[in-house]
């Protein structure tokens, strides 16, 4: 349910109310009980993202992740070894 913020024109106080979208707006202040209330527009945010970022693969199913890891070829340790060194033959100069 969304949170709506109201402001009372009589007492000047603001307050929040959880209401269904289909509910009628409040007409009386819940603090001073006078009938001079208006609903504010555009208050709050529906979603708050925290962290460094979100990616479409963050919430993949475990079955998908297992299938992806099974498809990857396993690398042997020999491919991780140092690259071959070039040996130069020095010619003797006289």
What's the arrangement of secondary structure elements?
Blueprint: E1 3-8, E2 14-18, E3 37-39, H1 62-71
Antiparallel strand pairs: 1-2, 1-3
Which descriptors apply to this entry?
single chain, 94 residues, alpha+beta, rod-shaped
Q: What does this 3D model show about the protein?
A:
The chain is α+β, with helices and mostly antiparallel strands. The protein has a domain at 3-39. Helices cover 11% and strands 15% of the residues. It contains 1 helix and 3 strands. The protein has a 3-stranded antiparallel β-sheet with strand order 2-1-3, with no helix packed on it. Strand 1 and strand 2 form a beta hairpin.
Computed structural class:
alpha+beta
Low-confidence stretches: none
Global Rg: 33 Å
Q: What is the helix content?
A: 10-25%
Helix count, DSSP H or I runs of 4 or more residues: 1
- Report the oligomer: single chain
Strand order of the largest sheet: 2-1-3
**Main sheet: strands, sense, barrel:** 3 strands, antiparallel
Strand content: 5-15%
**Overall pLDDT confidence:** 75
Shape: rod-shaped
Strand tally is: 3
End-to-end separation in angstroms reads 93 Å
> H/E series, N to C?
EEEH
Please provide a brief summary of the model.
The chain has one helix and three strands; from the N terminus they run E-E-E-H.
């Amino acid at each position: 349910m969304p949170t709506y913020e109201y402001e009372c024109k009589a007492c000047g106080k603001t307050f929040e109310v959880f209401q269904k979208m289909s509910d009628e707006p409040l007409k009386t202040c819940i603090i001073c009980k006078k009938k001079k209330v208006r609903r504010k527009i555009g208050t709050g945010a529906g979603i708050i993202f925290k962290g460094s970022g979100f990616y479409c693969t963050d919430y993949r199913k475990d079955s998908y992740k297992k299938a992806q890891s099974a498809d990857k070829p396993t690398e042997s340790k020999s491919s991780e070894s140092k690259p071959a060194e070039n040996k130069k033959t020095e010619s003797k100069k006289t």
